[in-house]
């Protein structure tokens, strides 16, 4: 069954198919040792699927972010416990042999360039992988053991659970003693979505973050097939509206993503960044990151900027088109076009947006870029503001001298 793409199965049929009604026990995989043969790992049909380009683009971002996340936390001696949970883990690899998220996350942690400085112990570091389909769970267990050796011998705790994200994530975080210490939770939610109470619990927890992804057309399919699912995902019927049937599909998708961003903020994350992961070819994927800390936002954006996008992959901000559309509506279709030396038009547009409610200091523009845009960082504000001053579009007070956080700015258009 392909992952993260439209399925011809109805949602309920698909998930009856996926979940086997067995008693689900927490189990650490303890299959054999290193020398698992290729034949032992040969998957049954329906276990693996081809790596799609949007998933590959998503993986690039995860790798960059986690490469930064582990050492930030684990090089802080006062942090006694760190938990990573991948609640829709998958089988650990793709049909072409490419690593799935559990595999590369564990691999990059164990082989991290700063490993010696991170004090990895089984008490301190826990990775939890939950997979709903028994055959994929079995494959993941075998694969991790073949690749890394018996999981009980690793320097970190690895728990692989055959279960359901929406039933097992919170109890596992409880039973492993994760609460009270930093958690990064990844919900590649495929068909199911994540009940908002999960995100509320994680948002409330100290220094914790979540990433939720949605396959193409996830929201519009649920809207017609399974509105109760959307109620759980958004926290109630009052928090979502059926799409405007007259709107273009891309616009509908932007509205859904904005609605989900609001849900993440309502769940308690102070910052929430929505992205469209747009591969060079193939369908895009929606991703929303939630964190309580400006430093989390800064690191996530930094990771995004570091990803190699030379093949044409883009991590785009769903707000951009809306902002641009607003500018179009206001009769400024070519506001920043045509100047090869201008900073990025999207950045300039957001700086303009930040000053639409009236004069404000540079610190406000910086905070706006950090909080309200997916790609732009605080440090991007001064050069963009200076460009717009030179262009006569922003007036500053005082009119001369160094641009500082307290310099007042007024949009004059
Ligand atoms: C998007 S794929 C996993 C991708 C993987 N995280 C990666 O990036 O390589 C989603 C996986 O979640 C599993 N799944 C679907 N619904 C689930 C649920 N409610 N709980 C746990 N796993 C689920 C599917 O069987 C599938 O293997």
Note down, in words, how this protein is organized.
With 413 residues, this protein is α/β, with parallel strands linked by helices. It folds into 2 domains: 11-316, Rossmann fold (3-Layer(aba) Sandwich); 319-411, Arc Repressor Mutant, subunit A, CATH 1.10.10. Helices cover 41% and strands 15% of the residues. It contains 15 helices and 12 strands. The chain has helices at residues 11-18, 38-41, 53-74, 101-110, 134-148, 165-175, 196-204, 218-225, 227-234, 249-267, 294-306, 318-329, 345-354, 362-372, 381-390, and strands at residues 26-27, 82-86, 125-131, 157-162, 183-188, 209-214, 271-278, 285-291, 314-316, 360-361, 394-397, 408-411. The strands form 2 sheets. A 9-stranded mixed beta sheet has the order 1-4-3-2-5-6-8-7-9, sandwiched between helices. Strand 5, helix 7 and strand 6 (209-214) form a beta-alpha-beta unit. Helix 3 (53-74) packs parallel to helix 4, helix 8 packs across helix 9 (227-234) and helix 13 crosses helix 14 (362-372). The longest helix has 22 residues, at 53-74. S-adenosylmethionine is lined by residues 3-4, 18, 55, 86, 88-90, 100-101, 130-133, 136, 164-166, 188, 190-192.
